[in-house]
Write a structure and sequence with these properties.
With 373 residues, the chain is an alpha/beta fold. The chain contains 13 helices and 12 strands. The chain folds into 2 domains: 196 residues, Rossmann fold; 139 residues, 3-Layer(aba) Sandwich (Rossmann fold). Strands 7-6-8-9-10-11-12 form a 7-stranded mixed sheet, with helices on one face. Strands 2-1-3-4-5 form a 5-stranded parallel sheet, sandwiched between helices. α6 crosses α7.
């Protein structure tokens, strides 16, 4: 009798489990993540770079079991670093693709107008590259794994003061990222320290000889170039290289060591001071990643601190998905509590304002690479 009871009980449990799983099937669908990135236009080389980083991160996550057995699927859209197009891309990802999380790795000026759209629709925006101070605490639905550019401008202003520069010319693109660096610089390098000459230009400008000739007449102690993309940096430095002008140079972190524009114009930018956020250590895993990147794409990994921030971003997302599924509100709230997250960047902490905690260090370009001062 006891054996019959046990058999019936076991059968009942099996039937109950079967009925439950039929009524509540395990969700094996992928977590869909939208990615807005410039694949055309002046910033296309950056877009391709960050797409490569993103693909490698997600491939790694999925190969290790994904998120509780569910994979992450990236849906790319090209925003061309254009504000209006970026807004259109975000709307499409939300309304057509039905994504609840979007990684927006693009120019800050194109990110800013997308934040209200995402916020209104309850979608979480996460960035590993957009650095404008305008984005600090802009919305509870936005966060980033990089610090604000305020510290970049501040670091170079303090460097200029230490060098005793009394007249500095800033030649900057009139878009959000360059303007924010220029403004941060000017807030520290005041009239007490010397004179600032500023010349702004449109992002589509191709010939800078007239601007440079005008600035050269003023005989500044140093010139600070702040283009918004590698393509613009190339055009700007190409024009500067035609002049017979030896003057100390500073640059935005588009002129990162080892970047294509620096390698191409190595002699012209020799000695240029830039400010970069600190990269993480060369762990064995990170060195293997860099080697794999070069093998796959036929070029060295550049903008390393930004690459690390973009790569680590997806692992933070993975852990958030494990905790909260694809609930964007809870995910956005949790991301702002991340403390010393282990990754290639050496530990990412995101503050209550949505910014990664950290700053920039001044470095000098020597033989195509950067060295800390």
């Amino acid at each position: 009798m006891k054996n019959t009871y046990r058999i019936l009980l076991a059968l009942g449990i099996i039937i109950g489990i079967f009925v439950y799983t039929q009524q509540n099937p395990q969700d094996t669908s992928p977590f869909k993540v939208g990615v807005s990135v410039p694949l055309t236009g002046d910033a296309a080389s950056l877009g391709e770079f960050f797409k490569n980083i993103s693909d490698m991160a997600v491939e790694k996550i999925n190969s290790e079991g994904g998120v509780n057995g569910r994979k992450i699927s990236l849906i790319y859209e090209d925003d061309s670093c254009a504000p209006a197009k970026a807004v259109s891309v975000i709307r499409k990802l939300i309304s057509v693709e039905k994504v609840k999380t979007i990684v927006i790795s693009t120019c800050s000026g194109a990110v800013v107008p997308t934040v209200p759209v995402a916020t209104e629709n309850g979608v979480f925006l996460f960035s590993g590259i957009a650095t404008s101070p305008t984005l600090t605490d802009i919305s509870p639905m936005f966060a980033r794994t990089v610090p604000s550019d305020t510290s970049q401008g501040t670091a170079l202003a303090n460097y200029s003061i230490s060098k005793g520069f009394k007249k500095i010319a800033i030649i900057h693109e009139m878009t959000d990222y360059p303007v924010s660096i220029k403004d941060a610089f000017a807030s520290v390098y005041t009239t007490d320290n010397g004179m600032l000459l500023t010349e702004g230009f449109a992002a589509d400008k191709s010939d800078f000889r007239s601007i440079l000739a005008k600035v050269k007449v003023e005989n500044p102690d140093a010139v600070f170039f702040i283009p918004g993309s590698p393509a613009v940096a190339d055009r700007l430095i190409s024009s500067f290289g035609t002049l017979d002008w030896k003057v100390p140079l500073m640059g935005g972190d588009i002129f990162s060591g080892g970047s294509e524009v620096v390698i191409k114009h190595k002699n012209t930018v020799e000695g240029m001071a830039i400010a970069e956020q600190k990269a993480g250590p060369d762990t064995a895993e990170y060195v293997a990643f860099k080697n794999e990147y070069k093998q796959r794409f036929g070029k060295d990994l550049i903008y390393e601190s930004r690459a690390q921030a973009q790569y680590d971003l997806f692992f933070i997302l993975r852990d958030g998905f494990k905790k909260y599924g694809d609930n964007p509100v809870e995910l956005a709230k949790w991301v702002r509590t991340v403390k010393n997250y282990p990754g290639f960047a050496g530990g990412i902490t995101i503050g209550e304002n949505g910014d990664a905690v950290g700053g920039h260090a001044v470095k000098v370009i020597k033989d195509g690479k950067v060295e800390e001062i």
